[in-house]
Backbone:
């Protein structure tokens, strides 16, 4: 259903207004159960993952490019001008006044949030039902850019699932989604109800490796060569901590192994997103 607009204050655009107000976005994305997908590629991945759009917002010049994904979301095989999902079209200057930024990546879509799976169900469903063998846990990350970058590395380097702690930034926040290039829809994830609580992971057969600087830590390459990683049935959960302070002492104490990335050049640590990529590569399965 195509709707042409020329007024940024149109009440039908309430999902999109005030995108630069972080508090407003957080409230809307929680209360209304929505998240924002930005760019043609990201929206396409969201729809392909089975997520249902509430509406689309774009300039008319992007309609032809977006037609297949809109049609797929509307459940029809033709151009989406008769479908049930609203497609809001507006001039570029109106779009910028609505969103607070220049919409240069094609389109926005307000998407309904899918219900998150339980941790046991998520881990059991990975690898086509064979169960997850490599997972990442993001502890209390506050920067949405780092969350998105970690998901992109997880998708590229074979991580089966991502678990985020109760206070971790939202993977479906607009910037996280954009930085991940939509891979937050590709890598299964859910939010842990409590943390640190490793009983469920241990019951599922996971060795929990905390990535941290510690006097008793082992080098990442040494850990990757250990039996915990090389046995045919090995299951490893690598835990990455918040920006600045890193992992909590309770998490480090509860982990089965404390692992460090060997450094040179008098550098003691990497940005958490960079560290995630290094760890995922080192622990990848053949």
Residues:
């Amino acid at each position: 259903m195509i709707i042409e607009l020329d007024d940024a204050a149109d009440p039908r655009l309430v999902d999109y207004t005030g995108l630069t107000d972080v508090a407003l976005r957080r409230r809307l994305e929680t209360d209304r159960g929505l998240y924002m997908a930005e760019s043609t590629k990201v929206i396409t991945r969201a729809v392909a993952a089975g997520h249902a759009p509430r509406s689309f917002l774009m300039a008319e010049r992007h309609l032809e490019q977006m037609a297949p994904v809109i049609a797929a979301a509307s459940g029809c095989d033709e151009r989406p001008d008769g479908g049930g999902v609203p497609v809001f079209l507006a001039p570029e200057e109106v779009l910028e006044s609505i969103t607070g930024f220049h919409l240069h990546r094609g389109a926005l879509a307000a998407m309904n949030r899918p219900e998150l799976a339980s941790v046991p169900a998520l881990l059991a469903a990975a690898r086509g039902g064979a169960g997850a063998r490599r997972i990442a846990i993001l502890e209390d990350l506050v920067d949405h850019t780092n969350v998105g970058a970690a998901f992109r590395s997880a998708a590229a380097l074979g991580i089966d699932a991502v678990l985020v702690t109760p206070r971790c930034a939202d993977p479906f926040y607009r910037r996280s989604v954009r930085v991940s290039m939509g891979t937050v829809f590709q890598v299964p994830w859910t939010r842990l109800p409590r943390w640190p609580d490793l009983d469920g992971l241990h019951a599922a057969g996971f060795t929990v490796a905390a990535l941290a600087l510690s006097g008793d830590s082992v080098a990442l390459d040494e850990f990757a060569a250990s039996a915990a990683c090389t046995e045919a049935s090995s299951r490893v959960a690598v835990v990455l901590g918040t920006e600045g302070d890193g992992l909590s002492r309770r998490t480090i104490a509860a982990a089965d192994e404390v692992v460090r990335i060997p450094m040179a050049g008098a550098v003691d640590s990497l940005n958490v997103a960079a560290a995630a990529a290094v760890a995922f590569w080192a622990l990848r399965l053949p």
In short: The longest strand covers residues 53-58. The chain has a mean pLDDT of 87. DSSP finds twelve helices and twelve strands in the chain. The radius of gyration is 21 Å.
